[in-house]
Design goal:
about 375 residues; alpha/beta; Rossmann fold; 2 domains; 6-stranded mixed beta sheet; 6-stranded parallel beta sheet; about 35% helix; about 15% strand; elongated
Length: about 375
């Protein structure tokens, strides 16, 4: 048996975050026994064509800084020679989100292949205000094709429920949680000298970055020596966050890294007492799971999909999410005895790994 993996979007935008990270980890940990063969949409024929197997290793290589465009990633080009069309009865797996109507047409035109999709979330359609004008409309080809896909799996229980709401049909696909060990950060241990907190996420309203900055501004005004490291790129909707960062520009207890590589994230977490991630706009929410996997406590929104079904060990769950609640959580963590208790809880927690994820996806796709 062979499973053909549609990498059209990863090839066009080989970034190392979000969905592209999930694809790379799926490739890295694919357990078989079916062979995994890459493919992509061929614009000339309007169908999918096989690609050399060497591409699977090539996409794992480090990208140049800012190399989100294929022209900046020349080492992929030798592995993009198009091969034959997919054979009859092929199993075609898509673990991407896309906006290309031609790609949607290609899926709708499938006759001799079975498509299986991993679905991440429906946030652009259920919360269009988070994405600005045109966002949901641009992704309508994806939704149009999804209606015709016979086999669907989901990254969270929330996405599974939202599928039923959006598609207005009975849901039967499994939930396959994403992995938590992609940072490859070694197990961390508590020390009273760890006085830093890390906020990791895009600077936009749905991530509640402004709420974090205001809470720490109040903490610093009261004389706290706690440090905050902000890791995440600016966003067009992040006017409040940008204004707060400008106001706190000279604050010595604040460090702003912007968009940073995994190595910089690992360095920041090695000094952190906890991760602060109060986002209420997530399809899953990998960053706090990555911290917890390394034994670092996390302050999260109670509604975070990634935490569904997990015991609350090592976590402070905010319900509701507010500036006062976040400030209280940080102060709680600044107490060494309370912090040590939360670290003990994080150490006892078992969160899914990328190997778990790949084995679950492979088992589901091959089961037919």
């Amino acid at each position: 048996m062979t499973v053909f993996l549609d990498l059209t979007e990863l090839i066009a935008d080989p970034a190392r975050t979000g969905i592209q990270r999930a694809e790379r980890e799926l490739i890295r940990h694919w357990p078989g026994p079916a062979a995994l063969v890459p493919c992509r949409l061929d614009l000339a024929s309007g169908g999918f064509r096989q690609l050399p197997g060497s591409l699977l290793e090539a996409v794992q290589a480090d990208m140049p800084p800012g190399g989100a465009e294929l022209r900046l990633v020349p080492h992929l080009r030798p592995h993009l020679r198009p091969g034959p069309a997919l054979p009859k009865g092929a199993r075609l797996l898509c673990a991407e989100l896309f906006a290309d109507p031609k790609r949607a047409d290609a899926y709708l035109a499938l006759r001799d292949a079975e498509a299986a999709w991993l679905v991440y979330d429906f946030l652009p359609w259920l919360h269009p205000d988070w994405f600005g004008p045109g966002g949901p409309r641009a992704l309508m080809p994806y939704l149009r094709a999804l209606r015709a896909v016979p086999r669907v799996a989901f990254i969270s229980e929330r996405t599974r429920a939202d599928y039923g709401r959006v598609m207005r049909r009975e849901v039967s696909g499994p939930v396959v949680p994403l992995g938590s060990d992609g940072l490859r950060l070694e197990r961390q241990h508590f020390s009273p000298e760890r006085r830093g907190f890390v906020f990791l996420g895009t600077l936009e309203p749905r991530k509640n970055g402004a709420l974090v900055l205001r809470a720490f501004e109040r903490l610093w005004a009261a004389g706290s020596d706690a440090h905050l490291t902000v890791i995440g790129k600016s966003h067009a909707h992040g006017a409040d966050e940008e204004a707060l960062l400008a106001r706190l520009e000279d604050e010595p207890r604040l460090r702003v890294l912007g968009r940073a590589p995994d190595s910089a994230v690992r360095t920041a977490l090695r000094e952190a007492r906890a991760l602060v991630f109060p986002s209420e706009g997530e399809g899953y929410g990998i960053p706090p799971m990555e911290a917890l996997h390394a034994g670092i406590p996390a302050v999260i929104a109670a509604s975070l999909p990634a935490a569904h079904g997990l015991p609350p060990l090592g976590q402070i769950r905010l319900d509701p999410v507010s500036e006062d609640a976040l400030l209280a959580a940080v102060r709680r963590l600044l107490d060494d005895a309370e912090a040590e208790r939360l670290w003990d809880g994080a150490a006892a927690l078992r969160v899914p790994t990328w190997r778990d994820f790949a084995e679950a996806v492979a088992g589901w796709v091959q089961a037919g």
